Amino acid sequence: MKKLITLISAVLLFISLSTNTSNANNESPVTSDKQGRLFLKQSLGHSHNDYYQRNPLHYALKANMFSIEADIFHKDGELYVAHSRDEIKPSRTLKKLYLDPLNKHFKKHGSIDTEHPFGGQVRTSGLPLILMVDFKNDGLKCWQTLEKQLAQYPNLFRHVAIDNEKTTITPAPVIVVASGQRPVKQISKATERFVGIDGRYSTDYHSQAPAHLMPMISTSFSEFLKSVGSQNPNDILIALTDFKSAAHQKGRIARIWATPDSTKMWQLLYQSGIQLINTDKPIQLAKYLNSQSQRSNTSTANAEQNLNK
């Protein structure tokens, strides 16, 4: 770990301290288009294993995390939120911990809103949400059950319908992405679905799959470093930037997981422009991201003052 932290520090020496000004005018940091592509104007947070938080979902929404992650098991026709089988509890279903609460937030904020770019909102900021579900067993049953459950919440989850090669995407404030044991072939062939696929860096980096099918591509930090094949700080920075740019060009979200949960790591990822910063500390990460946004606003204001002199 010390070697890794030293490496991160070395990378940061190569990064300009200039701030990201892309969201300085209070514009939404996330936009989408009719093809379902997602574009982020700055790095946002991903609440890893969100169900381990003292108050699942609540802290992530409060911290304005763009993405939250829940591991799920299929058992007797139900989906349970747990990291391992021995953690399965009757009270901790996906519906109870996430789907029902999200629906309450959706209704609290007015339900469907045709004027909103994402068809409504589940939080005051209006930022949409990615709900990543990590299938821990029997991916096909997990997906089939998940699709049935999501259909019980009209207009809450983004929906994709394909008819005679025509794709109709119904925007919604929550975008669901399947990771883990994903039944890729079945999801890809579905003519109607709520769920997209978390792509894998090793095999899907150059994938031509549409963004509505593959909204995200992920890899672990250790595997990413192996793929770089170098410990030269500049090589790592270039690879991070390339990953972010390749994802952005196709309207996908780039995510690196199992990163050190430290300010130095957050700084590295933020300055490289990677779309999602993985964390088990959503409140602390939110404070860091807010501080970066404030610096951006200050820099922009100073630049405008200088231009007006």
TrEMBL record:
- Name the InterPro entries on file: HAT_RTT109-like (IPR051236), PLC-like_Pdiesterase_TIM-brl (IPR017946)
Q: Does the keyword Signal apply?
A: yes
Q: Which domain of life is it from?
A: Bacteria
- Which Gene Ontology molecular-function terms are recorded? phosphoric diester hydrolase activity
- What biological-process GO terms show up in the record? lipid metabolic process
Q: Where is the signal peptide?
A: 1-24
Q: What is this protein called?
A: Altered inheritance of mitochondria protein 6
Q: What is the lineage of its organism?
A: Bacteria, Pseudomonadati, Planctomycetota, Phycisphaerae, Phycisphaerales
**Ribosomal protein among the record's keywords?**
no
Q: Which UniProt keywords apply?
A: Signal
